[in-house]
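Researcher: Sequence recovery benchmark, item below. Answer with residues only.
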């Protein structure tokens, strides 16, 4: 069995969800009462956010590369970044990491293609929605990424950073998120929605909204991880 290394803490709530989900899916898959080998290097999400805000992407990449080095030193066979936004620097981290990395974006693209989706609404932090990394990966497979309006993005980012990352999950925020998804998906004719933040599935548990599938990037990533562990 391979050992997975998690670059965690981005934020803590979603890292806990990753840990539990990997164990749960692993045990359902192997059915022999064993547990998977998991190493977590929990980094400082506030430091990462400051680097994002300053657009200091080179330092951000170095921060995550150092985490993969610690995971390698702890015996991990491969690793992943337990968040969407850090994939802004994923290519650089992958080039310099001592470990193979599993991309949440590539895994989400594979799942969207498997479901036959063509136009996908992306929601997450402002950094994720405004960056090109989702667009580029999905475009290679002939899929289109669309995003909410600037005003909607501002609401999403505020709630994400000031509530969800801090483990605050309010019913009013949940309703606000669902309204934006419904409105924006209809505006763009989206046939799927990417929950492009690993805290979003903690407040949006639905698998679909008005018949449109919501792609839980955490669980998609977890399935790719468990498959790699057992390969």
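Model:
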């Amino acid at each position: 069995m391979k050992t997975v290394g998690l670059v965690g803490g981005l934020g803590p709530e979603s890292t806990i969800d990753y840990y539990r989900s990997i164990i749960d899916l692993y045990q359902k898959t192997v059915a022999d009462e064993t547990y998977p080998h998991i190493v977590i290097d929990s980094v400082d999400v506030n430091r990462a956010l400051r680097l994002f805000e300053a657009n200091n992407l080179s330092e951000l990449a170095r921060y995550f590369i150092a985490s993969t080095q610690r995971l390698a030193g702890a015996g991990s066979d491969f690793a992943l970044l337990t968040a969407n936004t850090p994939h802004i620097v994923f290519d650089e981290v992958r080039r310099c990491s001592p470990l193979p990395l599993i991309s949440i974006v590539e895994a989400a693209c594979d799942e969207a293609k498997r479901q036959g989706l063509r136009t996908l609404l992306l929601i997450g932090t402002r950094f994720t929605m405004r960056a090109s990394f989702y667009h580029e990966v999905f475009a290679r497979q002939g899929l289109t990424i669309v995003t909410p309006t600037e005003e909607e993005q501002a609401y999403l980012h505020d709630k994400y950073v000031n509530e969800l990352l801090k483990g605050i999950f309010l019913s009013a925020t949940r309703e606000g998120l669902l309204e934006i998804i419904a409105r924006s998906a209809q505006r763009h004719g989206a046939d799927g929605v990417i929950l492009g933040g690993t805290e979003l599935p903690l407040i949006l548990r639905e698998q679909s909204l008005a018949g449109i599938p919501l792609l839980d990037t955490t669980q998609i990533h977890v399935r790719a991880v468990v498959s790699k562990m057992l390969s």
